[in-house]
Write a structure and sequence with these properties.
The complex is a heterodimer of chains A (292) and B (259). By secondary structure, chain A is an all-alpha fold. Chain A has a domain of 197 residues: Orthogonal Bundle (MetI-like fold), CATH 1.10.3720. Chain A has 13 helices and no strands. The two termini of chain A are 47 Å apart. Chain B has two domains: 43 residues, no CATH class; 209 residues, Orthogonal Bundle (MetI-like fold), CATH 1.10.3720. Helices cover 78% and strands 0% of the residues of chain B. Chain B is globular, with a radius of gyration of 22 Å. Classes of the chains: A mainly alpha (292), B mainly alpha (259). At the A-B interface, helix 1, helix 3, helix 4, helix 5 and helix 6 of A face helix 1, helix 3, helix 4, helix 5 and helix 6 of B.
Chain lengths: 292, 259
Amino acid sequence: MNRHPLKRTEWLVSLPTLVWLTLFVVIPTLLVFVIAFRPANPYGGIGPGWTLATIRDLAAPSYLAIAWRTLWMSLLTTAICLLLALPAGYTIARAPDRWRNRLLMLVIIPFWTSFLVRVFAWKSLLHPEGPVKKALEAIGLVGPDATLLYHPAAVVLVMVYTFLPFTILPIYAAAEKFDFRLVEAARDLGARPFQSFRKVFLPGIRRGVVTAILVVFIPALGSYIIPDLVGGPSGEMLGNKIAQRVFTDRNLPHASALSAVLVLAVLAPLIGVLVLQRKAGRKSEIVIGEAP
Amino acid sequence: MRRSRFPIVVTALVLGFLYLPILILIVNSFNPARFSSRWEGFSLVWYARLFDSPEIWQAVRNTLVIAVSVTAVSVVLGTAAAYALHRWGTSRLQRVHYTLIYQPLVVPEILMGISLLMAFVAVGLPLGLFTIFLAHVTFCVSYVAMTVLGRLQDFDFTVIEAARDLGASPWQSTRRVLLPMLMPGIVAGALLAFTLSVDDFVITFFVAGPGSTTLPLRIYSMIKYGAPPMINALSTLLLVVTLTAVLLSQRLANRQGRA
């Protein structure tokens, strides 16, 4: 070590965060997987020995239904966010300089406002005595007994609301680097606006689209507050089940097993993207290699 | 060639969608009506109730104690981490370091909350302000490191070499040259850490114990178990505080950009 003073400095500077993150990220995550195989004790702690019973419990139909609902609600949220973020990111990237920064600020500000406050704002909007319900009633779209809250649709709506800024930013970042003359060329060659968008613009900002999908889909899978506050029993997601196992019946092994499922569900799309990127990278290498 | 209006219309609708709920909430914080569908004149009654509530003040105190200490620790750790990542970026150690720092940014909050809870239970650490502090530092470090790393990317290291050539010790060149030039990035990271700590609910919910109620935990129980109009007032005040912080950090970022 003494022969490499630079190496020693590197270790010294990196060590505090390495130790901290090992203690509070790596070990706790491994612990979740370990505790999933331990029995619960009657005092809400962890009992001695090992068991597979908790893992077997996960195959219960009620859990499968929750897992399925978590998946489709997250996919739907991601799709809606993307549909709204593509035109928004495009518009901001093509806006004149003076406007671009202002529009960008407007997209970023909601990110800085309290998450709970934003969910609460929707809870009071959708409340039976709230303005949205009254407005829909006035134009005759819903009857006086309709409930807007405590429904999977309410959860998806509020998830779209909270995640939308995160989707717009990567789309914008990719669109800003995109050469819009390509779209103009496509239009000159006779493409209709939607064709040039789909065949030229969309492939050009592919990376931004992938990032946008990941930044919505992954946190959506782990959603907990939104279904808790506006979902009700019919809008419950995996996150709610984890919290119930911790706070309602204090069964930590059960909560751990569910969390382990969530970890794997989160890893799947990440690994998928990595594999796809590697494939795409190799393909482009081949193309470069073949060029004379 | 005529550009399609469609994207502009969608963008306008998206911005309306993002801001309308917040605006209605602010307006309603001045509405004395219990339910927000009718306007009953301007009033500060909910603000007055808020200031009279001892639980709110206790929660504010806890939140600030945590946020200030979290900011201090995570700024030191995060800045050192960013420097290491930038200086020795390609080494194997730094690749591991980067992966570790990236984790808290990717993993859903609930997973971080539950895994930290398991760890604290496993070692028998009593839940309270201290466990909240540990949990908050863990995710704030990553955000500070990423923010400072962003500034380091445009940093010219020849300035440090020049300082060393002119006889400055490593410590002097760090303290007198590197840190002042990184200051806008560090301050922006600190503001981010502070805001994230003040705002965090999910992770805090899992690792909080008796007597360590923070403001988001208090707001959550107010939402769940009544008192909605008071939350409008509290939310409006929070919005004012965070917006001030954002504008400040934007100013700092701009000043850095011009320098």
